[in-house]
Amino acid sequence: MSEKKRGAAIAALKRALGKAVLTGDSLPPRAGIDNARLVFHPSAYIRVENEEQVAKVLLLANKHGVPLTLRGAGSATTGSASPSENGWVLDLTALDSIRIDATAGMAHVGAGATTENINIAAEKEGWFYPPDPSSKKHSTIGGNLATNAGGLRGAKYGVTRDYVFALEGFLPTGERVRWGAPLRKFASGFNVRDLWIGSEGALGVITSATLKLLPKPEARQTFLFGFTSDAQALRAAISVMKARLVPAIMEFMDRQTVDCALRRRREKGPETNRLLKKVTGAFKKAPALLLIELDGRAAVVREDRKHLLELFAKFHGVSARDEAEAESLWEIRRTCSQAMFQMGDTKLNEDIVVPISSYLELLRYTLELKKETGLATPTFGHAADGNFHVHLMYNHGDPAQCRAAERGVKLLMEKVVDLGGAITGEHGIGLAKSPFLKLQHNKAEIEAMLAIKRALDPKDILNPGKMFTPFAMWKHPRDYATVMPWDKH
Ligand SMILES: Cc1cc2nc3c(=O)[nH]c(=O)nc-3n(C[C@H](O)[C@H](O)[C@H](O)COP(=O)(O)OP(=O)(O)OC[C@H]3O[C@@H](n4cnc5c(N)ncnc54)[C@H](O)[C@@H]3O)c2cc1C
Of 275, 309, 363, 381, which cross-links 388 as Cys (Cβ 3.0–4.6 Å)? Predict the structure, then answer.
């Protein structure tokens, strides 16, 4: 698009939306990046405050042929929330209403409401919204829906998709639509609601949603167990599932990860260090860990606790005596993510999924990858649903390490597909995983997805170039300096 046409489009946008449109020097500092830190230069950033404005933006984007990227908190790790070069960004965070229907067990929320605020509002009414991405303080429900976000409680409670009754919003061409209804049953027409979920902002704009809530669990019990090897920890996790115990959370931390966490003692509170020492002090080297949480009715949790302790009788661990101790055990898991930066200043966090039969092979392979690339490969993840976060740690100023990381990701993706797994379990494809889409899907599957995109978005306005066009991420400029809100935690 010529500069003249771009200027005319922005002038029309400003006439229609006034102060909601930011351009030039008034663009917000993080307008051009998401958590993948790939740098792009949008020509306008639009902070909408109501649905009428959303419709106006879509109509103008279609009329002038301007690419439009929808944005919540911008915490996407794949570049799916990165704007197109010279495109417009539509920020929906101001649509943050939350209304709990305590009788129906439903939450009526605006797309910009944060995951955490939805849960806080639900809990006040004795209900609970289970999907809990680690970014929940910041991430919006619009972003969660568009990526089908998962979280720690996935194995017992599922992912975002499992909690959606209805979505409201706009087609890429600007028409208002509602998919599903605030009803517990709905069987009319094609299920476009589920097509929008996980479509990474490419098939429509979600402005509000009706979500399913569950009764808030009456009790919870948190444990931390240590194991001499990664394989021993994974076998123990598998034994929990074989025993038909369904913990709300079963987080695995491999030895590389725990080794880092142990070296960052100073950053943890004294109580956390005491509990960590209690578990890890019994081992000569850093052990692998399993953080397990049971929840539900108090009597059921008591029964499951007894069962788990019998099953793990030969392992060394602690069981939280109260909420404060449970919180300290959680702090251990939370510090793991930051602790890894001792192994490199930049992290690739690959959210792959493998079948339970391949857990041990995956972990063996992360060590092979470590040798092959010379990079640390600390791994943690949700051991009850096979969604592991394999990290490749490298220094971004070192070209040899960048090449090793690029090669390492490719090898990992190939291995995961070989094992019958998925290249992404919760982050989506965006730009970062676009080169690997063909590993996961055959030609017919990709063609079917593209046909849907063409039908709903004939001018290719929403998030063009994402997912389907392999993106050369390693050649693209990145911004490592900007501090993101979640970097502070
Ligand atoms: C520290 C950290 C921890 C994380 N932990 C997890 C985790 O445990 N589980 C997990 O699943 N993810 C996790 N993520 C990734 C990220 O937080 C999720 O993908 C989240 O769902 C994105 O929400 P957001 O509001 O930031 O969306 P954005 O990043 O702004 O957008 C994400 C995608 O959704 C689209 N989108 C945004 N709003 C809308 C809308 N209203 N309508 C249509 N499309 C829209 C965007 O165009 C983009 O494609 C983590 C990220 C960080 C930084």
Answer: 381
